[in-house]
Write a structure and sequence with these properties.
This protein has 313 residues and is mostly helical. The protein has one domain. Helices cover 73% and strands 0% of the residues. It is built from 14 helices and no strands. Helix 2 packs antiparallel against helix 11, helix 3 crosses helix 4 and helix 6 runs antiparallel to helix 7. The longest helix has 27 residues.
Length: 313
């Protein structure tokens, strides 16, 4: 539980750094992936040794040593298992889903306010909770569906409030759309993390960031203008920090947490992120959310209280 909370508290500040970087959403994600992968390549073996993660090579029973071939970090030859019975393509798919979540999330943050983005984006944990019985075979609950319905009602209230806001109506609607798309990908990332819980967290994070960086490279490099704009020292420093702290460190914390708790519980614990993000937006950018956005946010939080699993399941 502590790992998931720590990751989302760190992620609460990521929007601030994204705006400070001055880069586009795709460039931000690309550099997060590159710097994050580099950091994970260095710190991953240290974390694995400290926590006893010795089964990443995919051979041997959990808790036993992998083969002494240098592939114990899950970075063996292409096409071999990167975890216990997990093919490389599955980890790569998880990374691409995670990266697409970030692309649309940052696009939403750069389009509308933090609170409007968070109201829509944080329907993701309940989407994951509702989908978990079919995707993961975990115990389902009508409470998750009830909470999801209430949360989407909160999103509708936020959008309708934005439409009454005149000049802000367009950006609010567009930003909400981006955030909802991001929410679907985020729910997928949560489900992937739970499904791949037998892969050590540093190994999974390293494969996800590396595979997604390779997949995104042609897209980002093709847009030479936005890429060149990010090649300034302040932007590079900020993007590097985002890769190290907000990607490598926080992602490892989240993935380790997902391996320890059910998807529904992990998803509902992520609400430290939107609360802290709104506070950061108020502190650094002076964003004062409107009444409709606040009401919608409260409805989303209430939906998550409704959808919270009971003590028995």
């Amino acid at each position: 539980m502590v790992y998931v909370l720590a990751a989302n508290l760190i992620w609460g500040s990521v929007g601030v750094f994204a705006r400070w970087s001055g880069a586009s959403s795709s460039v931000i994600v690309f550099f997060r992936l590159v710097f994050g992968w580099a950091a994970l390549a260095v710190i991953g073996p240290v974390v694995r040794r400290r926590d006893g993660f010795v089964r990443a090579g995919g051979q041997g029973a959990p808790g036993t040593a992998g083969p002494a071939t240098g592939a114990a970090d899950g970075l063996g030859a292409p096409g071999v298992a990167a975890g216990p019975g997990r093919p490389v393509w599955l980890l790569a798919a998880a990374g691409i889903v995670l990266a697409l979540n970030w692309v649309f999330f940052f696009r939403a943050l750069l389009t509308t306010t933090f609170l409007t983005t968070m109201v829509a984006y944080y329907t993701a944990p309940l989407i994951a909770a509702a989908a978990a019985p079919w995707v993961l075979g975990e115990c389902g609950s009508p409470r998750a569906w009830a909470g999801l319905g209430l949360s989407f009602l909160g999103v509708a209230v936020t959008i309708l409030g934005g439409q009454r806001g005149g000049a802000a109506a367009g950006p609010a609607a567009i930003g909400t759309t981006y955030a909802l798309i991001a929410a679907v990908f985020y729910a997928g990332a949560l489900l992937f993390g739970r499904y791949l819980r037998d892969v050590p967290a540093p190994t999974l994070a390293k494969w996800e960031t590396g595979a997604a960086a390779v997949a995104f490279a042609p897209l980002v490099l093709a847009g030479s203008g936005p890429f060149a704009a990010a090649m300034r020292w302040p932007s590079i420093a900020i993007l590097g920090l985002m890769g190290l702290v907000h990607t490598a460190f926080a992602l490892t914390m989240l993935l380790k947490g997902l391996q320890l708790v059910p998807a529904r519980v992990a998803g509902l614990l992520t609400y430290v992120d939107p609360i802290s993000a709104v506070l950061f937006a108020w502190l650094f950018f002076g964003e004062n959310p409107g009444a409709a956005a606040l009401a919608g946010g409260l409805m989303v939080l209430a939906g998550n209280l409704v959808g919270r699993p009971t003590a028995g399941g």
